[in-house]
Specification:
This protein is an alpha/beta fold and 256 residues long. It has one domain: Rossmann fold (3-Layer(aba) Sandwich). The protein is 41% helix and 16% strand. It contains seven helices and seven strands, in the order βαβαβαβαβαβααβ. It has a seven-stranded parallel sheet with strand order 3-2-1-4-5-6-7, with helices on both faces. Strand 2, helix 2 and strand 3 form a beta-alpha-beta unit. Helix 1 crosses helix 7, helix 3 packs parallel to helix 4 and helix 4 runs parallel beside helix 5. Bound molecules: ligand 0WD. Ligand 0WD binds next to helix 1 and strand 5. Its EC number is 1.3.1.9.
């Protein structure tokens, strides 16, 4: 398709081939988007350039960006402005919590662990939206990635569930602020997918098993399905939608 022909879209959070952001990359690339990537670590940069080469996807630009730092975010978007100019979309696919806080009881979460999860997984969307807005002079779409652990207690998800609740509330408030500039902000709530980050959450296999047993579609979702839902949010097909959380989870969230 050519749903995103001529659109410049920033993708944050490709760590490797299993990353949700990589599934999104494939969908947006196939829709004709020009892609700009940000990643945190040198290691991810090496992996990303190899992945792009192997899949014959050409990046317009790759810049480093640690969302823990306002300076890093501002430098990244300045560089994007200098090299690309106007952007039409941002995919925010980053989160982090200490491994120790993703097992046992939520009650044991430390002050630092709580704040870290909030900073990287929720506040980062606020800071990124603010920086990106300056480059979105033709309007645009911002899409983040969330999980059901924000709406109900999912054992082990703990501090990240609370951070995702904060992320989803941020989606609403940001949608209100940037809506008047023609910018939409939405979230995709994916079912469990085996990625580097998912390995840090205790009980992953059980979670995936429950989906196969109980979700209406009786199967797990993959990165490509999240990619296509994100493409919908990036494209004009979703032009009437903002502040929304769309579940891409085989329908699991409707089951009591
Ligand atoms: O089951 C799952 N895997 C689900 C994940 C279900 C529903 C939602 N999600 C969410 C995650 O919570 C996250 O928000 O999807 C998003 C992407 O997660 P992923 O694809 O599962 O994880 P992974 O492949 O590990 O990518 C996470 C990225 C990595 O990218 P880089 O390029 O930095 O290696 O988040 C990055 C992490 O390193 N990240 C950061 N990026 C910039 N600054 C930072 C940071 N400070 N910390 C972590």
């Amino acid at each position: 398709s050519n749903l995103l022909q001529g659109k410049n879209i920033v993708i944050m959070g490709v760590a490797n081939e299993r990353s949700i952001a990589w599934g999104i990359t494939k969908s947006l690339h196939n829709a004709g988007a020009n892609l700009i990537f940000t990643n945190r670590q040198e290691r991810s940069y090496q992996k990303l350039t190899k992945l792009l080469e192997k899949n014959e996807v050409s990046a317009k630009l790759i810049v480093s960006c640690d969302v823990a730092s306002d300076e890093s975010i501002n430098d990244a978007f300045s560089e994007i402005k200098k090299n690309v100019g106007v952007i039409h979309g941002v995919v925010h696919s980053v989160a982090f919590a200490n491994r120790d806080d993703l097992k046992g009881e939520f009650l044991d979460t430390s002050r630092d662990g709580f704040l870290l999860a909030q900073e990287i997984s929720a506040y980062s969307l606020v800071a990124v939206t603010k920086a990106a807005k300056e480059l979105m002079t033709e309007g645009g779409s911002i899409v983040t990635q969330t999980y059901l652990g924000s709406e109900r207690v999912i054992p082990g998800y703990n501090v990240m569930g609370v951070a995702k609740a904060s992320l989803e509330a941020s989606v609403m408030y940001l949608a209100e602020d940037v809506g008047k500039h023609g910018i939409r902000v939405n979230a995709v709530s994916a079912g469990p997918i085996r990625t580097l980050s998912a390995k840090g959450v205790s009980g992953f296999n059980e979670k995936a098993g429950v989906i196969e047993e109980k979700a209406p579609l009786r199967r797990n979702v993959d990165q490509d399905q999240v990619g296509d839902a994100t493409l919908f949010f990036m494209s004009e097909l979703s032009r009437g939608i903002t502040g929304e959380v769309l579940h891409v989870d085989s329908g699991y969230h409707i089951i009591g």
